[in-house]
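Note to self: keep these together.
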Amino acid sequence: MGDVLAGFHAAWEFESDSVLIRYERGIRTPRLFQALGERRVPLEAIAGVTLTPGRRGTVVLRAQLRPGADPLLEAAAGQLKEGSDPYRLVLPAERETLAEYYADELRTRLTGDGPAERHLVAAPEAPLQFKAYDGKAYFDGTSVAFRWFWTGASSAKWKAGDQTFAVTELGGVQWRSPEALEGHLRLERRDAEPAAGQADQDPASVVFGLGYGAVHESLPFAAAVLAAVRSAGPAPVPVPAAVAPRRDPADIAERIRHLGELHRAGLVTDEEFSVKKAELLAEL
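Structure:
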């Protein structure tokens, strides 16, 4: 088709085999949309299209994706609020006739309605990172790393130490929205029972909190990890551990600065300060 239908916060471009959704940047645009930038949705990923009345003189055009077609929606597991649905286009009511035309055109081109056998919409690209309440999470495309914060991490996580998980070790990702109680990101090991217990005690999890693990940061992260897990093959045969890669000097400097603040506040002894500082410097 090649035509463009612009609404509030986004514009849909209708192509022969896909719909390209470009999200606006602005103060009123949901931050998740801004983080996504754009999404190309193959027509084979769409199960249906609806057009319904909206609020305050608007209509809503919405693409309903096939289950399993989009890693973002799979990771979200129905937890996104209506206003953060990336496949919902809000338009002025006077464009209803035009929106109905495009909805009908899309419906004639759709071919699938059952669960998708694989992800059909691309996941956000790595590298990605975000700050949780008890640590910082990193994903480089092949592994996930958690680096604990002194102020937030539980004693169980400090005892376990910073964690790194190869994608090939993982079987799934559990994301619980920071907008609900007990929000967290938990990694599920391949061929292992689902982890039980509180996320703040699980070294394979980071927990969210007020201002930490925001949806627009943690959900694209979860989706990218999930997509990598789905496309990964069986875990390789274990080999002797290689020398760990050097850490980012800026990250080390930040952790030493924070350690110093705890030391000055009397929350860390002289001995603990010296030992931990030496450990951090050794990672440079």
